[in-house]
Amino acid sequence: MDKINEIKSYLQENDVDAAFITTPDNVFYVSGFRSEPHERLLGVMIFKEAEPFVICPLMEVPDLKASGWTFEPVGHQDTEDAWEVLAVAAAKRGVPLRTIAIEKSHLTVERLERMEQLFEGASFQRLDEQLNKMRNIKSEEELEKLRKAAALADHAIEIGCKEIAEGKTELEILMAIEFEMKKMGAEKMSFDTMVLSGPKTASPHGTPGDRKIQKGDFILFDLGVVYEGYCSDITRTVAFGEPSEKQREIYETVKKAEQTAIDMIRPGVKARDLDKAARDVITEAGYGDYFTHRLGHGLGISVHEFPSITGTNDMEMEEGMVFTVEPGIYHPEITGVRIEDDVVVTSDGVEVLTKFPKELQIIKP
Amino acid sequence: MDKINEIKSYLQENDVDAAFITTPDNVFYVSGFRSEPHERLLGVMIFKEAEPFVICPLMEVPDLKASGWTFEPVGHQDTEDAWEVLAVAAAKRGVPLRTIAIEKSHLTVERLERMEQLFEGASFQRLDEQLNKMRNIKSEEELEKLRKAAALADHAIEIGCKEIAEGKTELEILMAIEFEMKKMGAEKMSFDTMVLSGPKTASPHGTPGDRKIQKGDFILFDLGVVYEGYCSDITRTVAFGEPSEKQREIYETVKKAEQTAIDMIRPGVKARDLDKAARDVITEAGYGDYFTHRLGHGLGISVHEFPSITGTNDMEMEEGMVFTVEPGIYHPEITGVRIEDDVVVTSDGVEVLTKFPKELQIIKP
């Protein structure tokens, strides 16, 4: 319940009467309760001067308790108006609700209008930046989960490499990877697994399909695993058979760009300088036009979270931040290559969570 | 572009200056353009008295054109403020924007606040009910896609039945089904495929795992396929080896409940009466406490869409509505059984889209 207390302190310091948090990832972050209620109401209400509660569908109350929630559980049934149940539970606290902090980047207009009716006269302010700030710095407990998610992702790449064979389709390799991951206890993949081969590697957002692996292909794996609620995200590109000189040049350029950015990571370095360092390596090698996306993104409970590692973000890195470093070159005639690691900023540098080798792996046909 | 014109007519009839639609499913519905831009801005702006435009990331403009969009494409780059680009494109139309219709059940508070800044003095109203009303009635073209999605789902159940064997795990069967579906050209599954066996069938929202199939198990498949943007959703429960008398009783009760509801479907019948008819059959058989969810839900571009087939919804059925009928009995000691079909309301009755047999299938061990 540390996160609950941290938000309570925030409310006290900023003289805000309550916070209402409704996105499943943030509910999980502050309460430890993981639920996907779809259109049903799920939320944590935290007060400046009263005990918090979680509101959720009645049938999920046992799961809420099992997750370790020791404050009041407020269940609502499909036959009730869940918002009325919320208002009653909040009123029971007997504290004034003049200012309420909400997640403005997630809460819908319809839900805000409902809250404006129920908490008449209240003003609503942003909690988004406070939540981003908290989630941005990972605790040792969170890092341990991220390390395990990363180790599973490493293993997934290993399986993918072993599955490569002439005539096998991208989908066959993909299914073998996902099957092994589920067997090893991964809750689920962090996102749709990508296995792209040959010319398809040149598309940063391609879809795996029936294309059969051929000698001379590069094969790009982009995948991640959720472990105890935390995500990994890794990309490796490997060669099936001896690569051409140009293919090798592109690979080595991406590898150098990635390592250059990683080597710069420490507290105080700016996100935009990391992006620039990697981009400069690629531009100097003459492939600047083929690196068409940002360097990386924050990683944690969500596979894409705050902050964004872009050329326009002058945020300084701090100890405990976790993000991806993933430069790529997408050349339609030669090959696409992307290399992606998950990293954590340490007190004096960086720890790389994903460990699958980055020397070009050449799979023998 | 029929849907664009339909919304334009709505704006004219209701004297609303413009509509701005931003949910990917509704953008696809009105424009034919399927995109998942995550946090990037995607939207269709439709005017009472000017040409519409789609705003999307610049790199997606070629896909937008390829999808058949013949009006203006407005691309924005990551280095620009997409909302400023929107305001400029809207201003270029030279029409006043005093009232703007938005999807209040989806648009975030942050996005509305941005629009309030950009379109100063404008008032914002709901477009949600109009979109629900339109999506609720499927065209023949949409029905054709839903039929194909349903046929793929039938085939998936067939594969699942063939894969059943003593000692095989739920996950092994699941992966075999999904692999075949992808090979057959399904874009993706509509939701996480469910293969539950033995006591796990008694959980309406169970997770497939390592449990090995045993003689005497019931096996429950709940799955769906996306075909050209449209979803199917089917459930079948089959027996592995000769069922007990009680298992058979539960199966036949669910089957009768489902058929009773289906036989009532025609224009004019109320959603709540369908729910009640199925529930009455189950209650009369003594299993009322074990049917713990609504009868069904609308189906189309989204796997769960308007309307909800519940005991409290007095909406009348109309020709062209598509929804699921899926009663279940979840008995922790005997077995769980759910049977689910996708149906469309016709001029004088019902067409059942999913066709896999509903007589209890007994797989020989």
TrEMBL record, chains A, B:
Asked if the keyword Metal-binding belongs to this entry, the reply reads yes
Q: Where is the Creatinase N-terminal domain?
A: 4-137
Instruction: State the organism named in the record.
Output: Sporosarcina koreensis
Listed CDD domains: APP-like
- Please give the PROSITE patterns that the UniProt record associates with this protein: PROLINE_PEPTIDASE
A Pfam family found in this protein is: Peptidase_M24
InterPro entries, per the entry: Creatin/AminoP/Spt16_N, Creatinase/aminopeptidase-like, Creatinase_N, Pept_M24, Pept_M24_MAP, Peptidase_M24B, Peptidase_M24B_aminopep-P_CS
- The residues covered by the Peptidase M24 domain are 144-346
Q: Does the keyword Manganese apply?
A: yes
Top-rank taxon: Bacteria
What SUPFAM superfamilies does the entry give? Creatinase/aminopeptidase (SSF55920), Creatinase/prolidase N-terminal domain (SSF53092)
Give the required cofactors: Mn(2+)
UniProt lists the family membership as follows:
Belongs to the peptidase M24B family.
- According to UniProt, the name of this protein is M24 family metallopeptidase
Keywords, ordered alphabetically: Hydrolase, Manganese, Metal-binding
